[in-house]
Design a protein that fits this description.
This protein is α+β, with helices and mostly antiparallel strands and 330 residues long. The protein contains twelve helices and 14 strands.
Length: 330
């Protein structure tokens, strides 16, 4: 907001949950985003009944993915995966533009429980060493992009390393996740904030002295932005009473912060029985025979939403366009 906008209205406190708010601070050559996740992250965790430390990690990854995925234009998908040698060996969060999210976690339940009993279920112990993989898919006629950075227990640090190595833009990231108890019970929440310094390009005809002065100013601006960013508390990213707009104002109102239209988010697995059937048809008849269970049916469960789809073996034997469509089983 600039000074004139301050006079028009105060920062809104009623923005709600499940959104990403972009903002800019022109005086500091700064851009940023704040993610507030409520039911989207709670749904992902409740559908899999995750233990607390695993739920916390998945919630953080979802907040990061929402924040970065909201940068996609019109169509496309961002998938962020944490693949590690730790007890939590796989975390996946998926953002499909313009607003759909889903996520899953794979872990060794016994090892996680042991770490919890010993009071050692830190992110470093749970994740160990591995990779954080960023995959951007903009559609069928575009080239897929993938970036990989080392992961040594901190999703937050790995995200900053990604920007430093791939985009070479000074970037700070903060992730937070936790539970909130209200009259309806306990609910998971997650939040994230990112700031990036985008100094203006030096003028072609600027003197060496002018360039040095501008470089010094850029350094001062980024140090100021980081000092303000470092005052951010986890609870401010998780408290539903502190809207992203109010938080941006709290941090940068003296420099003049402008907030932009938020990107709204929703949980949507988008799994599809027809597509799953096509995938099963790619297996050989022998392989499908091994999938048949005692009731004579093939059961396939979506890893993201835990929805189970049931198929008769004979309907998977049909070739595309043959015999009409079999009625789905309940």
């Amino acid at each position: 907001m600039n000074t004139r906008e301050h006079e028009v209205r105060a920062a809104r406190a009623d923005m709600g949950d499940d959104l990403v708010l972009p903002f800019t601070v022109d005086a500091l050559n700064l851009r940023g985003r704040i993610a507030h996740l409520g039911s989207v992250v709670d749904t992902a965790i409740r559908q899999h009944d995750l233990p607390e430390p695993v739920a916390r990690l998945l919630a953080e990854l979802m907040a990061l993915t929402a924040m970065l995925g909201s940068l996609l234009k019109v169509q496309g998908k961002l998938i962020i995966q944490a693949q590690t040698d730790g007890p939590v060996h796989l975390l996946v969060a998926d953002f499909a533009a313009p607003d759909a999210m889903r996520a899953l976690a794979r872990f060794n339940a016994g090892e996680v429980a042991n770490l919890q009993q010993q009071g050692q279920a830190t992110s470093e112990a749970l994740l160990g060493n591995g990779q954080l993989i960023f995959t951007i898919d903009q559609g069928p006629h575009t080239r897929r992009y993938q970036g990989v950075v080392a992961l040594d227990g901190s999703l937050q640090q790995a995200a900053e390393d990604y920007f430093a190595s791939s985009e070479q833009i000074p970037t700070r990231v903060k992730l937070a996740a936790g539970t909130l108890t209200d009259a309806e019970g306990e609910h998971w929440r997650a939040g994230a904030m990112m700031v990036q310094h985008l100094p203006p390009a030096a003028a072609d005809k600027a003197t060496e002295e002018e360039r040095a002065r501008q470089a010094e100013q850029n350094t001062d601006d980024w140090e100021t932005a980081q000092a303000l960013f470092d005052t951010l508390q986890d609870q401010e990213l998780l408290d539903p009473a502190i809207s992203p707009e109010r938080l941006a104002y709290r941090l940068f109102h003296e420099q003049g912060v402008k907030v932009h239209e938020p990107v709204r988010l929703r949980w949507d697995c988008a799994c599809d029985r027809a597509k799953l059937g096509e995938m099963l048809r790619r297996f050989s008849a022998e392989e499908r025979a091994q999938m048949v269970e005692d009731d004579g049916l093939i059961h396939a469960t979506c890893q993201f939403c835990n929805t189970t789809y049931t198929f008769r073996p004979e309907e998977l034997e049909q070739q595309e366009g043959e015999g009409g469509e079999q009625p789905p089983l309940e």
